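Lab notebook, design round three. We kept the backbone fixed and only want residue identities now. Task for the bench partner: fill in a sequence for the structure below.
Input structure tokens:
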């Protein structure tokens, strides 16, 4: 009889530092960290813990430890600037902040600007000094002791909020998405369904290995990449930052069996001149999500592999916790332009974007989704929640598409305003509000325009204030100094007028017709 994964086998390895965690270390450090949250920091169930870390072996300790202590985890992009971070922590009000030395100044300034008192824990080099008042991660996780008597008393219900990742939603600034424990468990159940169970349960003879570059602060990386695969005993090779050369090296040296990717990486795998069949020699499944991928790009990958590989596409959002649709394992004659079929317990409906009335099967409409994985709501934003949830529990995705029976879901367009850059969400309203703070800008509008490598990129339309002079480069530099690199403005166009409705809403489709 084959044994399951032992606690002394690797669950994570850092591609950069080569640091490795075993499952027994993960369990021990998680419980020690959870105990520290309650004892050392005096946190209570329901208090918010912010984590601003790149993908690293310490991330799951912080995530699972927060859950074990009954705290709420809010995940933060580690390349955020002060402008973005202040917005998130003002909404979530964390009591504790876990980050790395490179982010310390931004975190400290943002907490002060938001007038939030939170202790800071640094995942750092133990040989280097830390600022006064800062606690080392090693003190609270690696050398601490677990108090199971205390942890066993923590009580949380299934519909309590477990984590608050951020999403651009359909309009406006990024919003905190309330993901419950029930949502996560339902997402795990989806991952364990036979027809969608890409990873195998590890045993004495086999362990699935995957490069974990999808950011853990994002729902795709957190629930599917991290939680879903640790629950199967897989080994994750974490990448703090995506690098094509490092990624390709991992494929060659680590005997990777599963690849979870986004469209820009799919294009890399299909078109990069250095990629050949040796990169795919152990790969069994490739799963792509985050944004639509052309069938021709899939064919390019399969052509390079020169061996049978199952390629699956899926659809999911931060608001749906996990996959809503996916190509099932073993599906024959797959249309690679489709995003699969509904997962277990998922209902899809397509509605007229104007009237909200259902449209016939096969006809294009706004996609609504209902599932046990759909979020509880937007944190401290009942108005946005009400606008995106129907009375009978369907979430309005803001995506236009249709379902072809026997084939699957096709996404054709977006009603929602967000821009998808390399699979990451960019809210036009966030960039517009930032641009309007520049002294030479009277008004601004931002739309997404096609980009050869990124999928889309932000383009800004600017009305100068009182004829003041400002160049495209100056505005691009201004924005780049305040936001994460993927949000930078790719193009700037100076205009005399920005089309708007009578109520002042920007007519983005008109902008695209006029200028894009």
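Proposed sequence:
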């Amino acid at each position: 009889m084959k044994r399951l994964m032992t606690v002394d086998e690797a669950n994570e390895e850092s591609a950069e530092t080569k640091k490795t965690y075993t499952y027994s270390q993960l369990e021990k450090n998680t419980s020690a960290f959870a105990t520290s949250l309650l004892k050392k920091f005096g946190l209570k169930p329901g208090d918010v813990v912010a984590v601003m870390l790149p993908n690293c072996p310490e991330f799951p300790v912080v995530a699972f430890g927060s859950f074990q202590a009954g705290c709420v985890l809010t995940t933060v992009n580690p390349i955020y600037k002060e402008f973005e971070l202040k917005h998130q922590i003002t909404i979530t009000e964390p009591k504790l902040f876990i980050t790395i030395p490179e982010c310390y100044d931004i975190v400290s300034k943002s907490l002060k600007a938001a007038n939030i008192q939170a202790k800071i824990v640094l995942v750092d080099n133990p040989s280097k000094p830390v600022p006064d008042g800062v606690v080392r991660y090693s003190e609270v996780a690696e050398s601490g002791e677990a108090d199971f008597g205390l942890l066993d008393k923590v009580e949380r219900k299934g519909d309590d909020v477990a984590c608050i990742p951020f999403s651009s939603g359909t309009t406006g600034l990024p919003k905190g998405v309330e993901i419950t424990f029930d949502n996560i468990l339902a997402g795990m159940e989806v991952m364990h369904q036979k027809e969608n169970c890409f990873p195998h349960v590890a045993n004495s003879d086999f362990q699935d290995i995957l490069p974990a570059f999808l950011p853990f602060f994002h729902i795709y990386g957190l629930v599917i990449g991290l939680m879903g695969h640790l629950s199967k005993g897989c080994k994750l090779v974490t990448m703090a930052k995506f690098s094509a050369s490092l990624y390709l090296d991992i494929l060659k040296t680590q005997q990777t069996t599963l690849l979870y990717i986004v469209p820009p990486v799919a294009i890399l795998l299909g078109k990069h001149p250095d990629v050949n069949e040796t990169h795919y020699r152990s790969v069994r499944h490739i799963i792509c999500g985050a944004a639509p991928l052309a069938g021709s790009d899939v064919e390019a990958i399969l052509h390079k592999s020169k061996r049978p590989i199952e390629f699956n596409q899926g659809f999911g959002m931060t608001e749906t916790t996990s996959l809503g649709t996916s190509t099932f394992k073993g599906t024959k004659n797959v249309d690679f332009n489709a995003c699969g079929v509904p997962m277990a317990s998922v209902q899809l409906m397509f509605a007229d974007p104007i009237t909200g009335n259902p449209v016939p099967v096969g006809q294009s409409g706004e996609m609504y989704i209902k599932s046990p994985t759909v979020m509880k709501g937007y944190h401290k934003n009942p108005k946005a929640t009400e606008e995106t949830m129907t009375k009978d529990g369907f979430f309005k995705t803001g995506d236009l598409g249709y379902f072809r029976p026997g084939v699957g879901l096709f996404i054709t367009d977006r009603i929602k305003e967000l821009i998808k850059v390399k699979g990451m969400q960019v809210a036009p309203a966030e960039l517009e509000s930032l641009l309007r703070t520049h002294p030479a800008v009277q008004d601004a509008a931002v739309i997404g325009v096609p980009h050869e490598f990124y999928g889309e990129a932000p383009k800004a339309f600017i009305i100068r204030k009182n004829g003041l002079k400002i160049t495209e480069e100056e505005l691009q530099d201004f924005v780049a100094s305040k936001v994460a690199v993927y949000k930078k403005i790719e193009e700037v166009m100076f205009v005399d007028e920005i089309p708007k409705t009578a109520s002042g809403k920007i007519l983005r489709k008109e902008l695209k017709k006029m200028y894009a």
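Keep this in mind before ordering anything: The chain has three domains: 10-156, 188-414, 419-514.
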